[in-house]
Amino acid sequence: MVRNMTGDQARIRDEFVQRSIGPFDSIRPLEGDASTREYFRVHQGNSTFIVCYDNALKGNTAETYPFLLVHNLLHQHKIPVPEILFTDSVAGLLIENDCGDLLLEQYNTAASHEDRMAHYAGLLDILVRMQSIPSDGSLPFTLSFDVEKLMFEFNFFITHALEGYFGCTGDEVKQELHDEFLRISMELYRPEYFVFTHRDFHSRNVLVHQGRVVIIDFQDARLGLPQYDLVSILRDSYYSLPRVDMDLLKQRYYLRSKEAGVHSMNPDEFDYYFDLMAFQRNIKALGTFAYQVRHFGREKFSKYIIPTLAYLHDYCACRPILKRSWELLSAAVGELR
What we know:
By secondary structure, the protein is an alpha+beta fold. Helix content is 50%, strand content 12%.
């Protein structure tokens, strides 16, 4: 949960900014999302900068702080990310260049179909480049979407969405759904296919700045199926692509990623894991939205629940392994009916 800075923390922040970039005109807080970090925009004449406060940075270095570690990895491989200009690990502060506020989610609503598709095509090319980053045996490559991690996200949904948000308290239903989720998690654990995974690769973690996309919020990266990030952006809870566009983009990604050596799956195998991964990813998102609404009172996440639920039928209708989960969810969650 993002919390407001204390007076002492604000003073330390201001001193860090002045020490780093010199005298400035103002610092204004930016609206938070589902993040534990606090962001501020610094105005200095005609220039602006972004200041981030993260308690997890304190006492860490670029080798031990996930945000900096993954940032440096992506920057090294020429993935477009904000430039980090100054850091103070003692105070938990860093300064980035300002890439604006225009999220891909917002850009999509006003862009022409041609421009929107061009941005998505470029974004998928960036995804192929990210997934081609070789493992060096250190973070984030020591983490993965193993069965334990997938089940953590499934169980988060059961606790915070199924029970907490939708009010399903039947122990038998929850246990059977848990068992079905375990079967799906075991099917999705294919480490031979694992690649670098951003983990939150959706339209609220992509900025459109000066006509180019910039990737943000990458600190939770780990190994996973290449489909994980693909379904995050093509089956996005925040912006629903028309089905014909989604299919065209998925086909483009499949051809380019296979050509780049990201995977060796045939089309049927690729689509099978796409559907299962999309189901898991959407279930995970529902758990997150419900948690944000119920625990933090962030009602803005409520509007994403129904669109995310609407995705589920497509996967479950064509994949027998998802059939029983669909039956259980349909009985427990009225919106699915």
